[in-house]
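Recall that a protein's primary structure is simply its ordered list of amino acids. Everything else, from secondary elements to tertiary packing, is in principle encoded there. The following example makes that idea concrete.
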Amino acid sequence: MNVNNLNIIHPDAILGKDVVISPFTTIGADVQIGDGSWIGPYVSIMDGVRIGKNCKIFPGAILGSVPQDLKFVGEESILEIGDNVIIREYCTLNRGTKANYKTVIGNNCLLMAYVHVAHDCIVNNNVILANNVNLAGHIEIGKHAVLGGLSAVHQFVKIGEHAMIGGGSLVRKDVPPFVRAGREPLSYTGVNSIGLKRRGFNSDQIKTIHDIYRQLFVIGGNITKSVHIIENEFPESAERAQILSFIREAKRGLMKGFNAIQY
């Protein structure tokens, strides 16, 4: 452990092997930091934070502050951060409320400068949140999703795996997996083909995804009718099952289709 007398580190904090703590950093009592992690200067890590191995926390980040939720009454909760996570300058990540008792950042995520992650969010593995992304409470983001800078996501929204959200977007509705989304109001702009190829999807899988979303968001106008057609006329596949499952579970409704009127 590499520390110096310019820090305030509670003696009950648990620090793993080869953890580096830079000057002017404050670490609370109920904190655990995994092996090989680097904590930059002027970082505040409050009670209830669990940080995995080989993470990098850049200057000015504030981790584990209490939720900005008037229903929060001091219940014990945590902020859980996985392995190999990079949290850049001035990010603010709140711990959970009694709804889930934790906020979760998965493995291998990149949170760029000034990102805010509110209480009870679940950010799955390999997600990228670009500069100034703001997540309200109770949001779930699937693995390998990418959110462009200055995007704001409404509470309780769910974003599917491998989705890509254009910069400056206002995300008020659920975004299904594998798609690109942009414009205002947020709409389907195509399949995230480049991202899928990079992650090992073959041409047949990508074509299947294209065909499903063409029916759902381009040809169709009625989601219920389109889902019926996809269930009965499209061949079974893992991608079809994943898309249909997401649609059935969408609580805030889906974003608009390609032909939606743009304002």
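Residues 228 and 234 are 10 Å apart (CA to CA). Residues 197-249 form a domain with the Udp N-acetylglucosamine O-acyltransferase; Domain 2 fold (CATH 1.20.1180.10).
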